[in-house]
Every structure is written in structure tokens, then in C-alpha cells.
Design goal:
elongated; 4 strands; alpha+beta
């Protein structure tokens, strides 16, 4: 699949680190599956991963301390 951002690079299966700055805390989730452009680095999540991230953010906001770092494979 071609990159939607740069229009030149190919999107390749990869992992990334997801950062979220919520009201009362910052969340970092490592090793999140994604598609990453081999040229510009643009990241795209599948709909299932994006849904899981939304659910995790809702839960994390109520449970998290000021900074929380999680491993995707262990929590998704």
C-alpha cells in the first residue's frame, strides 16, 4: 500500500511506540502493531488496533498515575 502522506513510500508492517497526553497523566504503550512508511515514517494503525487503543485510553485514564508505560502485547 502506498503512503497516504508522502505518496511515494510503501507502508510496511512494523511496531511503534504510542504516546497519549490525557487529562491527568501521560501514557506510553510500546510495541504497538502498525504500518509505517519506509520513506517518511508516517504511521497508520489498523482499525482493530485503533479500537483497542481507544479502549485502553479510556481505562488508563481512570487507573493511571502521572506516567504509565505499558507493553501492547501484555495489555491488548
Amino acid at each position: 500500500m502506498k503512503c497516504l502522506s508522502c505518496k511515494n513510500g510503501e507502508m510496511e508492517a512494523s511496531v511503534t511506540t504510542y504516546f497519549a497526553d490525557l487529562k491527568n497523566c501521560m501514557i506510553i504503550i510500546k510495541n504497538v502493531p502498525c504500518y509505517k512508511c519506509e520513506q517518511c515514517g508516517e504511521v497508520l494503525f489498523s482499525s482493530s488496533v485503533a479500537e483497542k487503543l481507544d479502549i485502553l485510553m479510556d481505562k488508563a485514564e481512570t487507573l493511571a498515575s502521572e506516567l504509565t508505560i505499558m507493553e501492547y502485547d501484555r495489555i491488548a
